[in-house]
Amino acid sequence: MTLTRRQVLASIGAVSVGLASPAIVRAAGSRTKLIVGTQDIAIQETVIASGVLDGLPFDLQWAVLPGPAAQLSGLYSKALDVGLMGDTSLIIEQGRAKLDWTEENAPLQIVAGWRNSDRAYPPVVTVVRNDAKINGLEDLRGRKWAYNFGGFNYLQYVLSRLKAGLKATDIQPVQLTDQFAAAAAFNAGRTDVYSGGLGAVHATVEKGDARILLISDELDIPSLTVFSARGDVIRDEAKAVALTEFLGRVRQHWEWFPSNLATVEKIYIEKLKQTPGDAKFFAANAASRFFPLNAELIRREQRIADVLFESGDLPKKIKVDIEFSQKFNNATSPAA
Amino acid sequence: MTDIVSLAQYALSPKQEAPAAPQTKGLVLVDLTPRARTSHLSAAWQVWRGRLLRVGSPLAILLVWQIASGFGFVAPEVLPSPLDIIAAFRELIAMGDLQSALPVSLYRSLSGLAIGGTIGLTIGLFAGLWRVGEEIFDAPLQMLRTIPFIALVPLFITWFGIDESAKIVVIVAATIFPMYLNTYAGVRGVDPKLTEAAKVFGLDARQTTLHVILPTALPSILLGLRYAAGVALLALVVAEQINARSGIGYILNNANMNQRSDIIVAGIIVYAVLGIATDLVMRVIERIALPWRPKLALA
C-alpha cells in the first residue's frame, strides 16, 4: 500500500487535531491564572490572613523573589505577571533601555502604588549617628555615607546630598549591595550617615545612637511601593479583569490592616521571624493605603527622573507618564 | 639479615649519608632496642588529655563568648550570645521551620549534586581521556567556573523560571566545576609509567582505563565529589532566593532581611553540622572505595 502526499498530510492533521483538542477544551474551561511576585512573604501572608481572597474567581499564585532585579527578571521572562518594587525601578529601567519606551511598546507599567501616609512612619530616611556630631546638612561634608544603588533608597541618598549642596566627591560614599548591608554598616558604626528604609535602622534610632536628619517627604520623594505588570498582561482582557479583582481585594486588605495590627504582628513574628519589638514597628509602618496614579503623582515622578538624569544616573531624558497605567485606579482608589 | 639492612638503607632519606660500614660492606647498624614503656596511667592520661582538649576548648570559647555577651562587651546585634542562639534554635524547632527546612534543602542539594556531579564526572573523564574532549570542554569550563553564580540569579530566573527546577539548576551549575576539575586533574595526573606498564602487559585501551587510569584517578575524583558536596550546600543560599518558602537558605535569607543575627548564626551552625555530616559520609565512601590507600598520620 502506498500513501499519497495528501493522505499523509491529512493523517498528520487528524493526529494534530486529536492531540490539540484536549488542550483546547482545557483552555476554554480553565480559569485565568495570575502570578504575583513579592520580595518577601509579608504582604501575601497579611492578604491571606485578612480573608479578602475568599471566593477568588481566578487562580492566584504568589512568588517570592527578593530584590527588584529578580522581580524584573521574573517579569521579562514571563514567569511573573505582576511584580513588586519601588516606584523608581521603572524610571531606571526605562532610562537604561536600549529602545525608547512608547505607549505601544512599554514592556512594564505600574498598576498600583501604596505607602503609609502617616509622617511618623516615613518609608525612606537619611539618618546620622549621634557620635558623628552631625548637627545639620552643612556637617555632611567628608562623611562616610552608606546607601545601596537603585530604587528610592538611592534617590534619598542623591537628593539628600544635593540638598546639602554636595557632590559625590565631597563625601565618602559607601555603596553596598542592598539596604540590609548598608544598614548593617551604619548600625555597627562603620559609617556616619545612612540613606534607606527606616525599618533597618529603627533600633539604632530608638536606642538613641542615631537620629533622622531628613525624611523622604521633605525631598518630595513619593516613595511608593508598587505593583508593576507586563504590558501584555494589561492588554489581555482576562488577565486585566483578574488584576482588577486582585487589586480591589488588596485595597480591602489595606482597610482591614490598621484594625488588625495584633494579627499582623503575630504573622511577622511567626512567619518573618521578627522580634516582637520589630514586629510592632513594622506592622505599624506597613499600614498603608493605595494612592491614585494621577497627574500629580506623575509630575513628582517626572521630577525624580529629571534629577537622576542630571546626576548622570540616567543616560537619557525620559517621560515617565508611559510607565503608569491608570486603568486600575477605580479598583485601587474608587473615590479618587 | 640482608633484607633488614636493605630496608634500613631504603628508609634513609636521599640526603642522609649511610654510615660507613666499619666491617661488612653494604651493612649498617640499626637500633632496634624497644622504646621505654610508658606506664598504664600515663597512657590513659594521654588518651583523656586529647579527649578533654577536644571537648574543653570549644566549651571554653563558648563560656568566654557568653560572659563577654552577658557583661555587654559584645553587642547582641554584632554577635548574639550562645544562649540567644540556643533560643533561636528553640524558636525554629518550636515553629517547625527547621524540621521542614532540612528535608527540603537536602533534597534540593542532593538532586543538584547528583546531576551536577554526574555531568562534571562525565565531562572530566571525556576531557581527561581524550584530547578532543579537552579541546572542546576545558577552555569553556575554565572560563565559566570563575563566574560568581550568586550574580546569576536574575539570569537563572529568566532562563529557568521560578519553579523548583530553577533552584536545582543553580546547584547543578555550582557542582559541575569542582567535579570536572578534580576528575580531569586526576585522569591527567596518572603516572605515565603505569600506562606504559599496562601497555607492556598487553592491556588494551579499555582495560587500561578501567584497571589503571580510573583506580589511580579515583582519589582525585572523590576529592572533587567532596568539594562538590560542600558547594551544593553553599549554593542553597542562592538557590533558595528563587521563590522558596522553606529551606535552610530561605531561613538565612529571611533572617538577613529581618536582621535576626541569632537566627543567622543558628543557620550557620546548621550548615556547619551538615558540612561535618557530609564530610563523614565522604570519608566512609573513600574508605570503601579506596581500601588500598594508607592511613598516615604524623602523630
Write up this protein:
The complex is a heterodimer of chains A (336) and B (299). In chain A, 43% of the residues lie in helices and 18% in strands. With 336 residues, chain A is α/β, with parallel strands linked by helices. Chain A folds into two domains: 30-117 and 223-332, D-Maltodextrin-Binding Protein, domain 2 (3-Layer(aba) Sandwich), CATH 3.40.190; 124-219, D-Maltodextrin-Binding Protein, domain 2. Chain A has a five-stranded mixed beta sheet, sandwiched between helices. A four-stranded antiparallel beta sheet of chain A has the order 3-10-4-11, with helices on both faces. In chain A, strand 1, helix 2 (42-50) and strand 2 form a beta-alpha-beta unit. In chain A, 44% of the residues are buried. By secondary structure, chain B is mainly α. Chain B has two domains: 1-30, no CATH class; 85-289, MetI-like (MetI-like fold, Orthogonal Bundle), CATH 1.10.3720.10. In chain B, 73% of the residues lie in helices and 0% in strands. In chain B, helix 4 runs parallel beside helix 7 (164-188), helix 6 packs across helix 7 and helix 9 runs antiparallel to helix 11. Chain B has eleven helices and no strands. The A-B interface holds A 40-41, 63-67, 69-70, 72-74, 76-77, 79-80, 180, 183-184, 187-188, 200, 203, 270, 272-275, 278 and B 77-78, 91, 95, 97, 153-155, 157-159, 161-162, 241-245, 251, 253-260, 263.
CATH superfamily of the largest domain in chain A: Periplasmic binding protein-like II
Q: Name the CATH homologous superfamily of the largest domain in chain B.
A: MetI-like
In CATH's first tier, which class of the largest domain in chain A applies? Alpha Beta
Helix tally of chain B equals 11
- Structural class of the secondary elements of chain A? alpha/beta
> Helical percent range of chain A?
40-55%
Query: In CATH, what is the class of the largest domain in chain B?
Result: Mainly Alpha
Shape by Cα distribution of chain B: flat
Report the sheet with the most strands of chain B, covering strand number, pairing sense and barrel closure. none
CATH architecture of the largest domain in chain A: 3-Layer(aba) Sandwich
Strand tally of chain A: 11
Rg value of chain A: 24 Å
In whole angstroms, the N-to-C terminal distance of chain A is 74 Å
Instruction: Give the helix proportion of chain B (percent range).
Output: over 70%
As for the CATH topology of the largest domain in chain B, it is MetI-like fold
Spatial gap, N to C terminus of chain B: 29 Å
